Amino acid sequence: MLLTARLKVIVVLDANEVLAFGVPNGQARVKLRIMIGGRQVTADVAAKGLRKAQSTLRQSSAENVAVIVQGRLAADDSIEGAGLVAQIKTPKEGALPRDQQPMTRPFLDAPRRNLANE
Question: Can you say how many angstroms the Cα of residue 73 is from the centroid of all Cα atoms in its chain?
Fold first, then answer.
């Protein structure tokens, strides 16, 4: 058995939900309740960071931004030292926009091997 002092977590949030989250003016910190597969964890983040993330979402649209909370998971299901960031997704070089990508079926379209002859 291996022991660890802490467990670092990175949680990707739904960008549209972050955009709709109300942040009262004059408040320094905001407590987020995050549902993950039937489990609720909490994160106390800076209101300024949340406002910046919402600004980034408005400027670049929710489909083009990843909103991430990261910190250390505590025994009481809270994320300690939580930080929230919004990162603009950069398309891979030469990649088509998502709405112009061809639909593929990788398992069905892959060439089949005849294992009987091997």
Answer: 16
User: Which residues touch 81 (CB under 8 Å, ≥6 apart)?
Assistant: 71, 72
47 contacts 30 by C-beta, under 8 angstroms = yes
Question: What element of type H or E holds 58?
Answer: helix 47-60
CB atoms within 10 A of CB 113: 8
Calpha distance 113→118 (Å, rounded):
9
> How confident is the model over 2-50, as pLDDT tens digits?
888 889 999 999 999 999 998 888 889 999 999 988 999 999 999 999 9
Is residue 109 domain-resident?
A: no
Residue 108 has pLDDT above 60, yes or no: no
For residues 50 and 107, which has the higher predicted lDDT (pLDDT)?
A: 50
Average pLDDT over residues 72-95: 87
Please tell me the total count of domains within the chain. 1
Asked whether residue 113 is assigned to any structural domain, the reply reads: no
CB 44 within 8 A of CB 29: yes
In a domain, 101, yes or no: no
